[in-house]
Amino acid sequence: MSRNRLGDESSPYLLQHKDNPVHWWAWGPEALAEAKTTGKPILLSVGYSACHWCHVMAHESFEDDETAAVMNERFVNIKVDREERPDIDAIYMGALHKLNQQGGWPLTMFLDSDARPFWGGTYFPKVPTYGRPAFIEVLERISDAYHQQPEKVAGNANAITEALAEMTESGAGPEVTDPLIREITGRLAHLVDPTHGGITGAPKFPQWSFFWLLWRGAIRYRNDAAKQAVITTLERMSQGGIYDHLGGGFARYSVDELWLVPHFEKMLYDNALLIDLMTEVWRETKSPLLQARVAETVAWLSREMVVEGGGFAAALDADSEGEEGKFYVWSAEEIERVLGAEDAAVFAKAYDVTLDGNWEGHTILNRLDAKTLGSDGEDAKLVALRAKLLDARAGRIRPGWDDKVLADWNGLMIAALARAGIVFDRSDWVTMARTAFTYVTEKMTVDGRIVHSIRHGRGRAPGTAHDYANMIWAALRLYQATGENAYLAKAIEWVAILDRHYWSEDAGGYFTAADDTSDVIVRLRTASDDATPAANATMVSNLAALATLTGDSRFVRRAESIMRAFSADLAKNLVAHTGLLAAAMDLLAPQLVVIVASESEPHSALGAVARSMSIPGAVELEVRGAIGALGPPALHGKSAEDGRSTAYVCVGPQCSLPANSEAQLRQAVLDLRSVA
């Protein structure tokens, strides 16, 4: 008997739909078999728990008996959480792009009984709106076409599926060199809004890969325009409404060019990547604003995003009580009730609070009129007022919490915390990273393989290349933060699994899905930018770091193979591969900074110097005693000279003379990180 089966699932997004009158299936062999048995086409609906428009379509259509009756009669209906099955989402979002349609969520695709896509879209309204047809009309037309025009449907499905299998270009592309990346850095800097930061126009997204390349290019090629573009972007974001000025943490994107009005969902991955970028930029600028935003965002993470056992939850919803942003916005009257008239006036001046509001009659707190933090006295006053408002806000109905733990996003946050903990001398942040790492290795590993997603002890989504790439990055960052060899060993172990189950022997590069992931119609292989770094781009940096640490040339050869595998894609669209271009710098100039701390100096002044300078992409270690067999042969056996802490700075196999003074190390790092 047909029924809604989502009550058996663990994903918060799927469970949101368990009471729909739609007879939903979760993705899996049973649902696909049902399509073959009944002869019905598949309606695939993909979304995520924090997606505002997913909620809109659910309320309009999936909770509507009339719409559900048409869906149940004519389709096998499958619901997918894109965060739980990013491999499935990527395939069918790619199919939508092949239909020359703009992507987004909810993703609504129509598939044949072999799960091959033949038509699709995103949000469809209940009644004709926004120039889009009514959803029931779409359902009836698609169903009729499927049964009355099978040859046309089969032709579409064949063409789209073949195009998906050929998404990666073949042939040779440009060699990635310093002159090429220098030129791209200069070109990209001109795309950034010089006043508000971010890529010019609206909406605006954090786009970590883009700004990571800009920052790396700024440092390596001494490009002041690129440097300022990144600084302006981070400062404007940090003062905008996209940032939660009471609770910390960044929303997913801004709908306007000012960073004022966000889509209010908070995603783990955005905050991980922004913590990492702000930390690296702070090393160069010592900006109190960026330091504060890092600390506040980590405080939010610790307070609101840690699940039992120490893993990090995926997201907070945009909506509460059926309204987007209701939890976060204020009226002038509400603020005065909490703070009193005098303090409310002070707060209103600082945070753009007016009687009319700045968004739909409400106020989104922001400090866009200020470029930096106020004086110590002013800021201390505002800290106290924010704390009162945060306490008052805690009494509101909270947005939904998506508490599933995703291995790839946890890897990003672990890596960010490990580095930020060392840079800002916060051992508690490193401890958070270690605990989350243990969560993944102990609770999300089955028969030696990473499980992509888990919630309340349940998880079945197969691991993807992103899970391994990001957790390898996390392991390498924790090795640098702690010096514990177990993290380095785990990174090497995971590379072996990636090579065994994800590597393309024919074309090179890593597939998203493993060779034993049986429920995908095609294995995608890409290095293009997305909201999170591409696995292949991350692996170029990971492999270069492993080669630097171990001296094993196999890692270099594998990284070079990835670059060759996607060289034709680079030739077609360099700007769509900023993450890969940034990673290529780690092959062009693998950088290593090792400080051998003297036993008589519990806190090395040289370590403080290294942490105070941006060295993006460098492997950074502090050891005691002797270096041993770490790094290039030129370093082997080196130790502290004359009982004084000593630094060694290397590019590839070439290492500097020992540096014993802060001035010597500072000059050595300046020489290391840039080219003429």
Main pleated-sheet profile: 5 strands, mixed
Which percent range describes the beta-strand content? 5-15%
Structural class: alpha+beta
Q: What is the mean predicted local confidence, pLDDT? A: 95
Radius of gyration equals 26 Å
- Strand order in the largest sheet: 1-3-2-4-5
Shape designation: globular
Helix proportion of residues, in percent?
Answer: 40-55%
Q: List the quaternary state of the chains.
A: single chain
Low-confidence stretches: none
* N-to-C span: 71 Å
Q: How would you characterize the overall build of this protein?
A:
It is built from 25 helices and 19 strands. By secondary structure, it is of the alpha+beta class. It has a five-stranded mixed beta sheet, with helices on both faces. A four-stranded antiparallel beta sheet has the order 8-9-12-15. Strands 17-16-18-19 form a four-stranded mixed beta sheet, sandwiched between helices. The model has no long low-confidence stretch (mean pLDDT 95). The chain is globular. Helix 4 packs parallel to helix 6, helix 8 (178-189) packs across helix 10 (224-239) and helix 20 (535-550) packs antiparallel against helix 21. Strand 18 (646-651) and strand 19 form a beta hairpin. It is 48% helix and 11% strand.
Secondary-structure blueprint of this entry?
Layout: H1 12-15, E1 24-26, H2 29-38, E2 42-47, H3 52-62, H4 65-74, E3 76-81, H5 86-98, E4 107-111, E5 117-121, H6 135-148, H7 150-165, H8 178-189, H9 208-221, H10 224-239, E6 253-254, E7 262-263, E8 266-267, H11 268-285, H12 288-304, E9 313-316, E10 319-320, E11 323-324, H13 332-339, H14 341-351, H15 376-393, E12 401-406, H16 407-423, H17 427-443, E13 445-446, E14 449-450, E15 453-454, H18 465-482, H19 485-501, H20 535-550, H21 553-565, H22 567-572, H23 578-588, E16 591-597, H24 605-611, E17 619-624, E18 646-651, E19 654-655, H25 662-673
Parallel strand pairs: 1-3, 2-3, 16-17
Antiparallel strand pairs: 2-4, 4-5, 6-7, 8-9, 9-12, 10-11, 12-15, 13-14, 16-18, 18-19
Helix pairs in contact: 4-6, 5-7, 8-9, 8-10, 9-10, 9-11, 9-23, 11-12, 11-16, 13-14, 16-17, 16-18, 17-18, 18-19, 18-20, 20-21, 20-23, 24-25
